[in-house]
Amino acid sequence: MASTPVEQLDLNKDGAASKTEIMQEFDSNNDGTISSREFAQHTLETPAKQRLRIHGYGVNKCLWNCYKFTQILAIPIFLIFYGLYYHVSTSIVLDSNPSSSQQQFYLHQLIKDRLIEQPFTDSDGEHGTIFLDIRNTQDLWIWVESVFSPYVAPGVASDAMYLAYELFEIKPITIDGLLTLPYAPVFYQARAESPYLDIDQPKRDDWVLEKMIKNHSCTKATAIEGCDTCEPWSSDDVGPSIKTKSCGCEAWSSGVFEFKAPPTPINFIGKDGKSYLTEGYTFSLPVGHGTQVGDLGSVDNVLAYSSHCSTQRLLFMSKNSWIDQSTRLVTVSFCATPFTSTTQTLPAMNRPSEPAICFRAVFDIDRYGLVSPSYNTYMGTRYLLSSNEGYYKRVFSFTTVVFPIYFLFVELIEMAIRQKRYCRKEEAIWNWFDLIIAVTCMAFGLNFTTTPFEVADKVQFDADDNDQIFHTFEALMANRSWMFYAGLINFFSTIKLIRVVSLRSSHSRLPVLTIFRSMWDSVPFLIFLLLWMFGLALFFNLSFGSIIPSFRSVGSSLITILKMLLGDIDFDQYEGTEIYIEAPILISFFSIMTLYFILTMFVSIIDNAYQETKSKLDKEEARKKNNLVRIEYVDWYGSLLHKHCLKKSKAYYKCVTWCWNVDHDIKEVLGAQTELVEVVESEYVVEN
After folding, report:
1. Is-contact 184 288, C-beta < 8 A?
2. pLDDT given for residue 338 in this prediction
3. Neighbouring residues of 331: CB distance < 8 A, sequence distance ≥ 6
């Protein structure tokens, strides 16, 4: 007599055995009826208990207890980590907490307003030109002399500067009444070996200015190109306190500039994705070497000296063609921080830290002399007290290093328990999430510098070599790259909250599983879409690349096509060209075709993934409800405690009874609502 398990009758795995499925199994002669003989040939047996490794069978007892213990603590520990990481990422990594004043953002806006959006009169005499409008080296020098230099080295003190000077013992010299420059602003250039070569053939030896004129002082009035001396600064004070100070141009009186290569050159991206190293030739302005009055006697003298000598150094460089036909890159950099970060205020500030910023203007210059400007700002933090700095460093390390180590330990235990099942089915999605979060978070915690402006203070440097500002930029640029991964950690951690909230509910699992299934099903289509877009980029690059700037390279063509898909199409750039009719027609046609592919294919894929996922979850719920799956777990210390201690206590009995009653009431309410909806739907008649 054959023995038929109950789950064998459920052929479509929907959790119930239908009439058709029963007939298919029992009706051996296919006459449409089940005779007593046919029924006697089969004996239904209850489902056997599943005894697998994931249920504790064949697992070391100590390992099994560790696994169960970590699984119970998984949700509360993750919630603690999530809260701490949110605090760290919005207060230590970036000052973006809604409860704070977002000082870093507004400091960036201040620098942008003062330097990027500040208008000036260009070489053609047109007023209203701004930084991003610079197209030649003449306008570059005008921006430096009329916008940049007056900001970092103002000649006249404002009321806010006088107030800071009077209130504090350190006598700070500020810009905007609050910011001070910890390092001197630095000018850097990279050169080609000759005027006819590109930056991929750089000059790496000493360079001599060729247009210098001996025994001639640099002044604006002279029309003569070239000079070898700067006019020294003299105070306007009358009497024995008259002071005269050199502007420091003697270092370049021979016209020789040494090639400097830092031990770890900074790599940054310029125009069209070109990569540059900070190896080349530099000079600085006499600002920031001292943020205090020092030996000049008054704040007016300090400002007058910085302004006069900055102007003289810039005249020396512009008159002697420091930027010439071989120059391929020029950067102008400075760092600023509120002087209150190193000074105690009265009353004391209730903020633990102050924002700090480093600004760099980048000018790409091609062989034809065309200048392409861009700029970068890097934000950092300076802590007011060493105790605050130590506290936040410990919180940061605990959150980004200790927690990931624990998460990796938990994942290793789970790998040992589940083995091949670790990367199967739905659990594989969350397991990969856990691994990505742990590994990325640990790498971020070990590489991110919480105090980038203090890094340069610990390095032995020569003030004339501008090493401090380069070390600071290096730390800030490394932080900028790691902040991308910090954002990924926040994103993945937030997605993982879905698993915490769902608590194995099929309705909560449905959206996540649908998304991941649709992503997997979309892989062939995404490959086709990428090839389609790459083909369009090549087509437009070859067709319009010599005329239209947005298609000048394959990379820029790809970016333009991505903008097109989002509806950002600039038809004005074709005006006045020979393709002003052809180009808009072709671009509109391919944009419509691409959007049609995307909308129709993705909607179909997502709908199909939703239907299949929902059907699978419904069958799983039905099988559990009908007890078609019986699982028996190996006891561990927690379950033994539950059996022998908790179950015998009255408090536990009352708690369980209350939870059961609440669950029963909720199910009754939901059942009544479902029946009501079914009745309404059955009585609903569509009138023609």
Report:
1. yes
2. 84
3. 187, 188, 189, 360, 361, 362, 363
Say if residues 382 and 339 touch (Cβ distance below 8 Å).
no
Does residue 339 register a pLDDT over 60?
Answer: yes
Residue 567: exposed, middle, or buried by beta-carbon count in 10 A (0-12, 13-18, 19+)?
exposed
Long-range CB contacts for residues 159-167, cutoff 8 Å, separation at least 24: 161/299, 161/303, 162/299, 164/339, 165/293, 165/299
**Residue 306's beta-bridge partner residues?**
none
CB atoms within 10 A of CB 18: 13
- Please tell me the least confidently modeled range out of 104-118, 181-195, 245-259: 245-259
Contact by Cβ (8 Å): 447, 410: no
CB 285 within 8 A of CB 310: yes
Tell how strand 630-631 and strand 49-50 pair up: parallel
Question: How many CB atoms lie under 10 A from the CB of residue 154?
Answer: 20
Window from 4-13, 213-222, 449-458 with minimum mean pLDDT: 4-13
At 616-659, the pLDDT tens digits run 877 777 766 655 555 556 655 555 555 555 555 556 556 656 66
> CB–CB of 173/166 below 8 Å?
no
DSSP H or E run through 5? strand 2-5
Burial 163-186 (b: 16+ CB within 10 A, else e): ebbeebeebbbbbbbbbbbbbbbb
Q: What angle do CA 566, 568, 569 make, to 5 degrees?
A: 125
| Mean residue pLDDT across the chain | 78
Q: Which residue has the tokens 């070990």?
A: 446
Domain assignments of the chain as residue spans, ordered by start:
2-46, 61-93+395-503, 104-181+191-196+205-384, 523-626, 637-683
- Burial class, 313, CB count within 10 angstroms (exposed 0-12 / middle 13-18 / buried 19+): buried
- Residue 353: what are its φ and ψ, rounded to 5°? -150, 165
User: 3-class secondary structure for 114-135?
Assistant: HHHCCCEECCCCCEEECHHHCC
Q: What is the pLDDT of residues 79-88, one digit of tens each?
A: 999 999 998 9
Three-state SS at 268: strand
From residue 290, alpha-carbon distances to 177, 184, 687 in Å are 16, 9, 86
125 Cβ contact list (under 8 Å, min separation 6): none
- The helix (H) or strand (E) run that includes residue 127 is strand 127-129
pLDDT class of 47 with cuts at 50, 70, 90: low
pTM (predicted TM-score): 0.77
CATH code: domain 523-626 is 1.10.287
Per the listing, tokens 């009826």 go with: 33
Query: What is the token pair recorded at 554?
Result: 């394959």
Name the amino acid, one letter, at 269: I
Q: What is the pLDDT of residues 100-154, one digit of tens each?
A: 667 888 888 999 999 999 999 998 888 889 999 999 999 999 999 999 999 998 8
